[in-house]
Design goal:
The complex is a heterodimer of chains A (275) and B (168). Chain A has 5 helices and 12 strands. Chain A is an alpha+beta fold and 275 residues long. Chain A has 2 domains: 60 residues, no CATH class; 200 residues, Rod shape-determining protein MreC, domain 1 (Thrombin, subunit H, Beta Barrel), CATH 2.40.10.340. In chain A, a hairpin with a 5-residue loop joins β10 and β11. Chain A is globular. Chain A starts with a helix and ends with a helix. With 168 residues, chain B is mainly alpha-helical. The radius of gyration of chain B is 16 Å and the shape is globular. Classes of the chains: A alpha+beta (275), B mainly alpha (168). At the A-B interface, α2, α3 and β2 of A face α1, α3, α4 and α6 of B. Chain A: This is Cell shape-determining protein MreC. Chain A: Belongs to the MreC family. Chain A: Pfam families: MreC. Chain A: Keywords: Cell shape.
């Protein structure tokens, strides 16, 4: 016993180093697996507060470009509204209590953007207080942005599509062939669409949208256009380079998407798994 | 003594804030960021006890990790350079360090640069290796390490020159 204590005292620096080093490696490994990072995230009172107060100041610098983006979107929505076949008379109204909706949208602001590392995580200023939960989708007016991971009372972490762990189901706009959207960690303007069958009619310039197969995003949210494509090593699937509609380096106003049926869908999927 | 403690506490918070609010959003050429918070590890008083030093470095790294949502990679890199610092000190300053008479304000410029360079490169290799986390992308790790190291070393040397108290 004496010897053991002596040994610990003699090597206390090394043992402390080893302990802390192993701890941080464990945290790192956790952060590299999807939805596992438990303690180390910026959706907490202190870091969220710091980012929020700084964003209150820096938000003014890109007001102009953000306003342009919002006006552009309004323009597009107006053109949809007044050109639609359906007459928009007084009887047409939309409230959040109607039961035929599957997705509920909310607005939020990105207070910490990140795009330069290989696993990018954003922070938005809405949290569990605004009934944001894990697995809500997040989009901008131009296209897809990511999926909510951790929430605190006032803030939420969003796993960006620029994250090597993220996998989102996507498809061609003109046909229903689908694949999974991943990122190789290199250029924030491009993502990769993998596992798209060889039989699909792929052409440069085609639009890629979300497929609606996951319970997170509704079908048809724009992602990007095909920049380049080739067959993978086994020559069964395409590897497609997708140019994003979003400028991931300039993001402020985003929309969160809640799928009302998510519980039902997940229950059904789990039942199938258990059988 | 009191002065040293308050200086280091102040330095801890100021470096973390500068790092997470400014330096991590520079993204020069898309991905090159300086990591100047390691100045805390570089400039920590030599004579202090090592257990406290390693623990503080871990805390520093963890704080940066929480802000940047990066798991524990900054903590790991910080703990590592804190542990190997005596070896690096001996390597770059030799006899001056062994007699425990050195102060960071009154050392040769050449050996100071060697010291900062070695620690920075060690820190960055571990950091980017843990960030990318795959052996097959070793070239990307080395590329990021090289460019970010140049940026970090330049800034660290500049900051130490600007904030050094003249003793001559």
């Amino acid at each position: 016993m004496q010897q053991i204590i002596n040994f610990i005292i003699r090597n206390k620096t090394f043992l402390l180093f080893l302990l802390l080093f192993v701890m941080s490696i464990l945290f790192t490994i956790q952060s590299h697996s999807y939805h596992k990072s438990k303690f180390i995230n910026s959706a907490n009172f202190i870091t969220g507060g710091v980012y929020n107060s700084v964003n209150n100041i820096t938000g003014y610098f890109n007001l102009k470009s953000q306003n342009d983006i919002l006006v552009e979107e309004n323009n597009y929505l107006k053109s949809l509204l007044y050109n639609s076949e359906q007459q928009t008379d007084d009887s047409f109204f939309n409230d959040s209590l109607s039961f035929d909706k599957h997705f509920i949208f909310g607005s939020a602001k990105v207070i910490k953007n990140s795009y330069s590392s290989t696993d990018n995580i954003l922070l938005i200023d809405k949290g569990s207080k605004d009934s944001i939960k894990q697995d809500f989708g997040v989009i901008t007016s131009k296209g897809i942005l990511g999926v909510v991971n951790k929430t605190s009372k006032n803030f939420a972490n969003v796993i960006s599509i620029l994250n090597t762990n993220s996998q989102i189901s996507a498809q061609l706009k003109k046909s229903n062939h689908f694949g999974s959207l991943t990122w190789d960690g290199k250029n924030p303007a491009f993502v990769q669409l993998l596992d798209l069958g060889k039989i699909a009619p792929v052409e440069k310039g085609d639009t890629i949208v979300t497929s609606g197969r996951s319970s997170i995003f509704p079908k048809g949210i724009p992602i990007g256009t095909i920049e380049d494509f080739n067959l993978d090593d086994a020559e069964n699937f395409y590897e497609i380079k997708v140019k994003l509609f979003n400028d991931m380096t300039n993001i402020e106003h985003v929309y969160t998407i809640k799928n009302i049926d998510i519980v039902e869908i997940n229950n059904l999927l789990n039942e199938n798994k258990n059988e | 003594m009191n002065n040293i403690i308050s200086t280091n506490i102040l330095r801890f918070f100021i470096l973390v804030l500068i790092q997470v609010l400014i330096c991590s959003h520079i993204n020069f050429l898309g991905y090159i960021n300086p990591y100047i918070y390691i100045l805390f590890v570089i400039l920590f008083p030599v004579k202090n006890n090592r257990v406290l030093f390693i623990f503080l470095s871990f805390l520093l790294g963890l704080t940066v990790d929480i802000f940047l949502d990066s798991g524990g990679m900054h903590a790991a890199a910080c703990v590592f350079i804190a542990y190997v610092r005596p070896v690096v000190l001996k390597f770059s300053f030799g006899i001056q360090y062994e007699h425990l008479t050195m102060k960071f304000d009154a050392i040769e410029f050449g050996s100071k640069i060697t010291y900062i360079t070695v620690l920075t490169i060690l820190h960055h290799i571990i950091l980017f290796y843990l960030e990318i986390f795959s052996i097959s992308k070793i070239m990307l790790v080395l590329q990021k390490t090289l460019f970010s190291s140049i940026f970090t070393i330049l800034l660290c040397v500049l900051i130490t020159i600007i904030f050094s108290r003249k003793t001559k």
